[in-house]
Amino acid sequence: MCDIMTEGYTIGGEFTLGPDHHRLKVRGSVSQLAEKYHPGLRFYLTGGGYYSLKAILKHLKSKTLTNRPVLLPSFLCPTVLMPFRELNVPYQFYRVDSRLRPDLDNISEQITNPDKQAILIIPYFGFGFRDDIREGFEKLRSAGSTIIEDRAQCLFPGFEPIGDYLFYSFRKFLPADGSMLLTKEQMTIMPDHDNRNYITLKRKARQLRHRFTVTGEGSEAEFLDMLKQAEQNYYTPGIAEFDQENLDILLKTDVSNEIEKRREYYELLHKQLSGIALLKDTVPEESSPLCYPVVLDDRDKVQALLKEQKIFAPVHWRISMEEVPSSFSDAHLLSSTVLSLPIRTNLPAEAYCRMIKLMRE
Hints:
alpha/beta; about 40% helix
């Protein structure tokens, strides 16, 4: 396959709608989507993962389950902390090692009253937990702890949820903003705004990017500045709704095909780049890979070189000592060495040959 070298593809960056998107038909209702992947759970929609987490924290606060600190993994996106600060919910961290394994002993040491304490867990990069870690979390849940499962890096994977509450963030996988929150409980979630400034700026940024990459008009700096403005407008007080245009994009997506193609491309990359992989095992059938994460001592240099070749590999995540204490050394090591090689299912498999070649050089 990689005997043919393809030079013209842009890999990664902002998602864009395909040229035939307007011809696609909605594949079903949102309730059918929820029932397909999470039968028996109640679902709620918000404008994004940030808002779903905020809704969960508000709900737990009403049940006095946030009087004691919520336990958070030391390796996480710094924006996860924002709803906690906004709602004055205390939190503290538990250790995660350099291969993303949560330290169950460290978690247990910090639980003072299981019935009154919550734990947030992250199935990193769309992969489920090892059996022993999963069993440990299930024991903590059986003992009374409330589990929040942050599935922002997943797209309806096949592994069973552990959390009492779980939520998705579709903008990590699709050109669609919005989130689905699922739980067995009845919740009252009342979105109070449409986040229109963010949605408008994001749409304009996508148009500018399309014009620049297809016709060469405008500049990269122009659409990147617009994306930055959009992101600054994303995090707003209250709970944003899942707007209809973004919901239609989700419902027109062949989710099963999206997941299968991501697994296929992950395997393609893993066959060639396993020596630098963060996750050493091949992709399990029940996963939904966000990207292909690699570990590099010269991460930032490689990221810049890839960008010159129109390969936009993000960093998950840059965390500071102010956000996560320096004592969590493995988390900071991950923060300085992990690079996420992008996976885009709208490209042919041959498009990844150039990225593989560049990485192997």
